[in-house]
Amino acid sequence: MTAVSRWSPGGTPAAMESAAGPTTIPDELAEQAESQHLLTLGVEEEYLLVDAVEPRSVEAVEDVFAQVPEDLRDVVQHEFMRSQIEVASPPQLELSGLFSALTRLRRELSAAAERAGARLVAVGAAPGPGPHARVVDKPRYHRMRERFGDLSPGAGLNGMHVHVSIPDPESGVQILNHLRPWLPILQAATANSPLFGSRDTGYASWRSVMWERWPTVGPTPYLDDHDQYAMLVADLEASGAMLDEGMLYWYARLSANYPTVEIRMGDVCPTLDDALLLAALARALVATLLHDVRAGVPAPKIPHPLLMAAHWRAAHDGLEGLNIDMATRQARPAGRLLRQLFDYVRPELARHGDLEMASVLMGRLRKRGTGAARQRAILARSGSVSDVVDHLVAATRGPR
């Protein structure tokens, strides 16, 4: 199969302003991927900024941005709220390259935040107190605020987006159809926002619940072809439900600016271990499904309400509870469903050289639990949201 295409980006200038995304795939990397029939990989991560001492969020993005090294300015971006900041890794072929890129980005951004009198936290929603943050001073964000009002309360919501290269938009749409049954379990594995406003919400991913307030958030609909995809995007823009293609917040979509499928339903992961595992699984899943697309295997037409129920269970339970086995439509332990997904994509993990590392990371996730489970364990021991935030700050930065 052809692994990488470099079709011209279709995004409008407004859409291109909306998010970072991996930088354009260099010709040399694209040629290497094509020659080896492999897929490239990129990750976006959104972070929260908190006070240097207290667990409250702070509107420090401009001060932090001023401290970012010059050579990283192109891959560090503003997000919607002034208490958020975002990074985008360069496209990678090897998981070790993604590890190196994200390690540097997390460490450099953590150091920049500290120099600015703040701290960097990889968490889906603000666990501690804080004022309702203002939006970043960009025309597009002001337009979003004017049209959609108070849909993103508090300090902002922080996700992880995985970009996997695809050969062409038509194949991409069919991959989106095949992805639908698998995304709830990947969402469960990223659950990392049980606390909000200094209390346990009862959900493993409270970010997911708040994020669904936006009109275009939800499972990707089943689509016949790319023409239908493009028509639906145009119809949604015309309806006023989104300003531009950058606001297409389906759990998986075609990137508006890059030749990738973008998987974007998860919380930002607390550690690089978690982020790398999810990225490896996402790429292996896309590669596995691409074989089915090329073979003409039809995607299962899972009813939309059942998908919504599975995503709700992912937000509520994380990996520590149940989710829906789409083959049997029965509730099963989410951890077993993740293992089922791992076994399903194992051949592509091996073909991309990720199997050994992914196996180790899978073992660590099963032992430690999700970010949500870790936060709750700390809160149960100490009763202190400050201790939870201190843990998250250290997990985000990684070993010194």
Automatic annotation (TrEMBL):
Pfam families, sorted: GCS2
Record Gene3D superfamilies: 3.30.590.20
UniProt superkingdom: Bacteria
Coiled coil feature spans: none
Known EC number: 6.3.2.2
Any one of the GO BP annotations: modified amino acid biosynthetic process
Family designation: Belongs to the glutamate--cysteine ligase type 2 family. YbdK subfamily.
Protein name in UniProt: Putative glutamate--cysteine ligase 2
